[in-house]
Structures are given as C-alpha cells and as structure tokens.
Amino acid sequence: MELLHIFGWRHLHVRTTLGKVKGVYRHLTATNVLGWPDLAPCWNPDQPGRLLALELKVPPDKVTDAQRGVLEELAFSGLECHVIRPVDLEKRVPQLLRKQSLPPVVTDTMLRLSREYRDQVTREIAG
Questions:
Q1: 107-114 — which CB contacts under 8 Å span 24+ positions?
Q2: pLDDT tens across 54-86, in order?
Q3: Contacts of 58 (CB under 8 A, 6+ apart)
Q4: C-alpha angle with apex 102: 71 to 80, nearest 5 degrees?
Q5: Domains of the chain: which residue ranges?
Q6: Helix axes 108-126, 65-76, angle to 10 degrees
Q7: In three state form, how does the secondary structure of the chain look?
Q8: Residue 7 contacts by C-beta under 8 Å, 6 or more apart in sequence?
Q9: CB of 23 within 8 A of CB of 61?
Q10: Whole-prediction pTM value?
Q11: 7-58 pLDDT, tens per residue?
C-alpha cells in the first residue's frame, strides 16, 4: 500500500476482522461480494480513466475460485486486475503504477482486446 501512495494512487482497502460464525472464529471481510480484491478500486487523479483491482497474496496463499471469478468479471468490465505477490514489489509493481492510461474510447478493437486481457488475467491468476 505504501507504493500506491508513493506513486500518487488512492485506494479502498478491504480489511479482514476476526468474527465468530456458528461458534467458530474466522477471518471475515465487510463486503457483500465473496472474493472481492484486497485493494479495489485503486485510482490515480493523474491517470484519468484508469482503475486497478489488486489481490495481494503472500505464499503459501493461492487465489480462490471466488477471487478468480471476481477478478475475471472486473477485468471484463474494464478494470486492470492484478495478483501481487512479494516477488513483484521491486520491479513489476512500480512499472504497473507508472504506466499511463489510454484514452477512454470504446471500439470493436478495444472490446476484442478487453476479452484478450480477461483471458490473460485468467491465465495469470491460475498461474
């Protein structure tokens, strides 16, 4: 999250709390969407038209089916979706946050690319 702030990004962070469900303590999140990304949306006033959804994973954690489904839906809806792991923090994340947005024009080509991007995100999440 510190890198987001350094590069001028703002975000909503879904925090977990410890709650009791049917007598058992579990980690709970305050969202109505199972699998919602940890940081979403993320936006930068200096990069209009660009929204990110970031799922943070620390080994040995893996992306759940619910998280995969939400990330795929968000990607298809136009958000840039990324799974971020500690190994990404040095190079990939700073490059991602510096990248400039494209003008928000919707064309057939962009819709095709959006589908291709969704497929790429799906492969990245599965990896």
A1: 114/75, 114/76, 114/78
A2: 999 998 889 999 999 999 999 989 899 999 999
A3: 85, 86
A4: 10
A5: 2-126
A6: 160
A7: CHHHHHCCCEEEECCEEEEEECCEEEEEECCCCCCCCCEEEEECCCCCCCEEEEEECCCCCCCCHHHHHHHHHHHHCCCEEEEECHHHCCCHHHHHHHCCCCCCCCCHHHHHHHHHHHHHHHHHHHC
A8: 44, 94, 97, 98
A9: no
A10: 0.71
A11: 899 999 877 778 888 888 877 777 878 899 999 999 998 888 899 999 999 9
Structure tokens at 97: 């946050």
The tokens for 58 are 């620390």
Nearest-angstrom CA–CA distance, 125 and 30? 23
Tokens of 118: 């969704």
What distance in Å separates the CA atoms of residue 22 and residue 121, rounded to the nearest whole number? 36
